[in-house]
Amino acid sequence: MDIKYVPTICPYCSCGCGMYLVVKDGRIIGQEPWKEHPVNEGANCPKGKNAYDYIYSKDRLKMPLVRKNGAFKESSWEEALDLISSKLKEATPENFGFIASCRNSNEDAYVMQKFTRVVMGTNNVEYCGRLCHSPAAAALIPAMGSGAMQTSQPEIELADCVFLAGVNIKETFPLIARRVLRAKNKGAKVIYTDPRKTATARNLADIHLQLKSGTDAALINAMMSIILAEGLEDKEFIASKTAGFDELRDFLSKVDLKQAEEITGVPLEKIREAAITYAKAERGCILYDQGMSQHYVGTDNVRTHANLALLCGHAGKPGSGINSMRGQINGEGSGDMGCLCVFYPGFKRVNEETAKFFEDAWRVDNLPTKPGFTYIDMLYKCPYLYVVGGDPMMAVPDVNNVKKALEKASFLVVQDIFPTEISKLAHVVLPAATWVEREATHTWIDRRVQKINKVIDAPGEAKADWWIICQLAEKMGYGDKFQFTSSEEIFNEMRSCVPQYKGITYERLEKTIGGIHWPCPSEDHPGTPTMFLQKFNTPDGLGHFQVVEYKPPAEVPDDQYPYVLTTGRSIFHYHTGSMTRRTPKLIDEVPRGFVEVNPDDASRAGVKSKDVVTLETRRGRIEAEVKVTDAVQPGLLFVPFHFPSSCANVLTISALDPSAKCAETKVCAVKMKVKR
Ligand code: SF4
User: How far apart are CA 27 and CA 24, in angstroms?
Assistant: First the structure.
């Protein structure tokens, strides 16, 4: 019997846990712990333990599909790519858009943005990081010089105060939650902001600030005001390492704490306890996620937390900083590779100087010098659209409106491993390989670059994403710029023009269990687990305070829509659910969408658990099964966004953050009706 144990990395969240896949006769039949892997030391969460089942789902895309007379017909690669090539030649730089994904490898993402810029002549390239973590770059590049995570996962255990800001870490990053628990067991205090009483609130937090959704800036301003009143700010750090403190102090001197209590719904004594606990810590570590940042004021929310970290000197040390927790496997890497309309690879800002740099690197002329459209704008403004590895019809707010726009698209290409909601609208659907059917690198949450080897062959005609894009580039007359025969060749071109990755090679990654953290400037550099040890990455090397005034959510409840709706995730499902909904053990745990309703609201509305209700906002209506629970406060409803049949984003509002263009998917006004 030919059984192999092949080491790999989990394809789901951005922790980057190692595991062995058990392979028999070319088929994966099981999963085993990888005890020596430094991220997870043998442990995996329920998703990781069931990481491979979906690969064998019967509805895997195995052949290119071309729409003919309203129905999809299987085609050859030749036919599909000829059609796409001829249609994309009709497009202009203004009306073409490319949407990549957090699930693409670094090599895929690099080729996709290069295709968009070189072949299509536009910066209209984005990925789904725009929808969740764009406020990190918008707030933290001016504040500290980078939007990436600042400490490494193991270093979290060094913190003596962990501030979990809008991150239900027990469900969304289970193996980082274990680090927080270890810190707590050594005496660290855990502060947690979340409108819901989640597993994190019940089992990990010492201080749960159950704020009203979207009131983070008011809360943090109040905390900073208390810290200054108590004289607990880090005066030496502020004097030597920051700029803009006087403006912040003047602003905070006017903060009305009683008003902050009313706005946030958090008792002032609890705000005070959290403020003093964080300020007195030796190493305070802020870990934040979409509960804090996925608002139309998301950038402001991140700015206030950055102010808090700078005020208390909690940055530039292992186990400290303000750390953006990107949820998906390559949430960091796809941004690093330049799948953003305002950044070329390596977060080089779009402008003439950067375009010239890449014209030289890629031996091309006339690269675009102006920012392109952001993700949501592209869905409405680009009738020629190429979407890889994501499902905007599930992930974007106000889905009914998105659908209307996409139904009018002149030409929509979708490239994925399964049919999705958006592929139903496509003109051509292309079959892609999964994470174990090709060789690639990804960059996980703490800037950790790891390599994944090919384990099995892709089914049918499914191909690696980068291969498909290179074939298309050749059809369009740019084959000489995309002559890659392996993912390693792509990686080597990328690292020649992205300084953060310069010293990372496939050979080094093969030998380094747990990978290498960027920045890694040379091949003899060990990588950088902690950022800003000497100074911040801003032009003057200082951390910059940015004054933020609290603004209320874009839509608040009224007589017609009396509840607040918030959305989020379950430990058993991943993003839009296309992989986990095809995994029997995970779908057994949470088979369908639901709405959490407080017992008081349930009794007033006359509903009980398992009843089906209609949820309606100004944008649309869904049905969902009721789950009565005190996890939500009266007046708040919660719906997970993994299920097309109860698609939360039919309801959400597309009010956009003016800086980051991230949408407000965490607050809108909704009504609930019992379905009789
Ligand atoms: Fe996979 Fe994340 Fe679970 Fe680790 S914590 S096993 S990376 S889903």
Answer: 5
pLDDT confidence tier of residue 641, bands split at 50, 70 and 90 = confident
- pTM of the complete model beyond 0.90: yes
- Measure the CA–CA gap between 614 and 344, rounded to whole angstroms: 44
Atom of ligand 1 nearest to the CA of 43: 6
DSSP element (H, E) containing 137: helix 134-144
**For position 96, what pLDDT does the model report?**
98
d(CA 22, CA 574): 23
pLDDT in tens, 135-176: 999 999 999 999 999 999 999 999 999 999 999 999 999 999
Query: From ligand 1's centre to the CA of 597, what distance in Å?
Result: 29
Q: What CA–CA distance (Å, rounded) separates 583 from 573?
A: 9
b/e string for 328-339 if b means 16 or more Cβ within 10 A?
A: bbbbbbbbbbbb
The per-residue pLDDT for 580 is 84
Query: What six digits make up the tokens of 305?
Result: 């937390």
Ligand 1 centroid to 474 CA: how many Å?
37
Containing 462, the helix (H) or strand (E) segment is none
DSSP-derived 3-state class of residue 626: strand
Residue that is written with structure tokens 């060749």 in the block: 489
Please compute the mean of the pLDDT values over residues 97-103 and round it to a whole number.
Answer: 95
3-state secondary structure of 191: strand
Q: 């469900």: which residue's tokens?
A: 171
CA of 135 to the centre of ligand 1 (A): 24
| Mean pLDDT, rounded, for 208-236 | 97
Q: Which of 126, 89, 71, 95 is nearest to 427 (CA)?
A: 71
- Report the sign of the C-alpha dihedral through residues 134, 136, 142, 145, in that order: negative
Residue 638 has pLDDT above 70, yes or no: yes
Alpha helices in 146-256 (DSSP H): 169-172, 174-185, 199-203, 216-229, 235-241, 245-252
Give distance in angstroms: CA of 328 to centre of ligand 1.
10
Judge contact between 265 and 212, C-beta under 8 A: yes
Q: Are 229 and 276 in contact (CB under 8 A)?
A: no
Strands 18-24 and 27-33: antiparallel
List Cβ neighbours of 243 (8 Å cut-off, separation of 6 or more): 540, 542, 543, 544, 545
In this predicted model, what pLDDT tens digit does every residue of 27-65 receive, in sequence order?
A: 999 999 999 999 999 999 999 999 899 999 999 999 999
**Residues 6 or more apart in contact with residue 551 via CB below 8 angstroms:** 217, 297, 300
Residue 181: both structure tokens together: 């628990």
Q: How confident is the model at residue 676 (pLDDT cuts 50, 70, 90)?
A: low
599 close to 158: Cβ distance less than 8 angstroms: no
Q: Which of 14, 39, 40 to mutate to test the pocket of ligand 1 (most atoms within 8 A of CB)?
A: 40
What are phi and psi for residue 187, nearest 5 degrees?
A: 115, -5
